[in-house]
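Late entry, evening session. Most of the bench is empty. Finally got around to the prediction I had been postponing all week. Sequence below, unchanged from the version circulated by S.P.
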Amino acid sequence: MILDEPTSGMDPESRRQTWDILQEERQGRTMILSTHFMDEADLLGDRIAILSNGRLQCFGTSMFLKKKYGAYTITFPLVFS
């Protein structure tokens, strides 16, 4: 399953219902999900990749990223070429 920001624009209750459905349906499937919500990535992702300016900045499990960067207060400098 490839999902591009599936909960963008949803109210909190609808987001939570969608998360529940995705968690139920993930068994035996590969799911690729893009999101701007780190809580969504944390809940749904086995592994999380963070991109900035079209480049991979970090990749790992939620626990790995929290140990390395803290509670997802990651900032990357903007680089313009």
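Two things to note before I forget:
Residues 49 and 59 are 4 Å apart (CA to CA).
The mean pLDDT is 85.
Will write this up properly tomorrow.
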